[in-house]
Amino acid sequence: QVQLVESGGGLVQAGGSLRLSCVASGRTFNNYVMAWFRQAPGKEREFVTAITWNGESTRYADSVKGRFTISRDNAKNTVFLQMNSLKPEDTAVYYCAARFYGIATGRAMYDYWGQGTQVTVSS
Question: Quick check: 31 pLDDT over 90?
Fold first, then answer.
């Protein structure tokens, strides 16, 4: 089992920045692909970004490319999501997720999930 705990969400004005963190515990963190998903009210949970175990490969949703950056620190069992140039449409609950194999964009492909952290971007 892997336990994931997100933090760093909050209220920010459009154009601002936030940095989310996700701390993992349980099995060896650096064996896992880590991802961020988000879910806005009334919408499906959608893929945001993911990173391989060694940080050498990443993938981003088109909607966040050039604005969001995923990174990880395996020594601290932590994955980060730096969000810049935030827009009101980025408002959502952001979830950290983990899976054992390669990067995937489907939520069903991930085995472990955090409880989520709310990000609200005001216009």
Answer: no
